[in-house]
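Job type: complex structure
Entries:
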Amino acid sequence: MPSEHNFDLPRPRPLLIVISGPSGVGKDTVIQRMKERGLPFHFVVTATTRPKRPNEVDGKDYIFVSKEEFARMIEADELIEYAIVYGDYKGPPKTKVREALASGQDVILRLDVQGAETIRKLAPEALLIFLTTESEDELVRRLETRKTETAEELKLRIATARKELQRIEAFDYVIVNHDFHLDETVDTIRAIIEAEHHRVKPRQVTL
Amino acid sequence: MPSEHNFDLPRPRPLLIVISGPSGVGKDTVIQRMKERGLPFHFVVTATTRPKRPNEVDGKDYIFVSKEEFARMIEADELIEYAIVYGDYKGPPKTKVREALASGQDVILRLDVQGAETIRKLAPEALLIFLTTESEDELVRRLETRKTETAEELKLRIATARKELQRIEAFDYVIVNHDFHLDETVDTIRAIIEAEHHRVKPRQVTL
């Protein structure tokens, strides 16, 4: 009823939500499940130099660019951050995040721990969620199951994970992503987002 | 598996949750519904000087005390805060809140806005939730429906509510308690509590 004198309540603003955590913790699986469940979030599409696979759609799964184009994007400071994954470059374009925030929807970004720390500097009011396993042994088991790492790589990933756990203070929330409890993790992410929308002092994300 | 090397994750601690808001907003109804739904929270029992009604149980619904005993509790600083409601005294005993926190459960306290501000001073890490209506007109309608106020009292309550809305900054979260959407309000409270249990820096309540 527009004629009513509404109380001047804080207005929820779109959030910039970063899903992060050590390699092997299940970031992609969690985001995949969020998409499957049709949650009303805007998932940022990442630019990559890796070749498109037959089932992938350019602009939907990834933005497929040449190494030259990616180099240009780095030079022009067009990426939030970038990482080299198995020899290929990967990074979310700033314009994509800005467009998403402008649409009014909450924006979900998947980043490794270093990338999340970069976001904290670029957009201090971003909401950073750290996914972890309960124990180191569990993380090792998951990495071993992937069978994508050599013994040396595995050692490197574990050492990295240990260091990353020490940087958890840069994050707002931490969720233990239990095996076979994917939906619990997704529910907790939703609860965090709902709670954040009721903050008396909403986060003001600028990028 | 106790033999595993667990990550040193932040441990969730019991929260002290204050449900507050202007008179007429529906605090009691919300808490009543939380109890009906059997949520795993500890609801603090308030001491009162008003006579026990036939259906009430001493120590469960309220702690029924004489005015002399209540005066002694005030003198001995045994109450979190107290208020006079229709000539009777009402206030939650500190020991009850301490016992509840020690049990490890999240503790729910229902307080008026002034009481919530007192808690903020006593226990800065308490979680304060402000319930409100969307508009002033809606609050007036609810107060009128109660038919417990005279025209003058109603004016006083509205003036108080306006002032209270201006003190919303002292609170952590705000929820619009829509008519006929009681369960939505309860769900939001649950989401807030779940989110808070995943904070990297848990609230440390001492009282």
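Summary: The domain at 45-91 of chain A is CATH 3.30.63.10 (Guanylate Kinase phosphate binding domain). Strands of chain A lie at 16-20, 41-43, 46-48, 62-64, 83-85, 88-91, 106-110, 127-132, 173-176.
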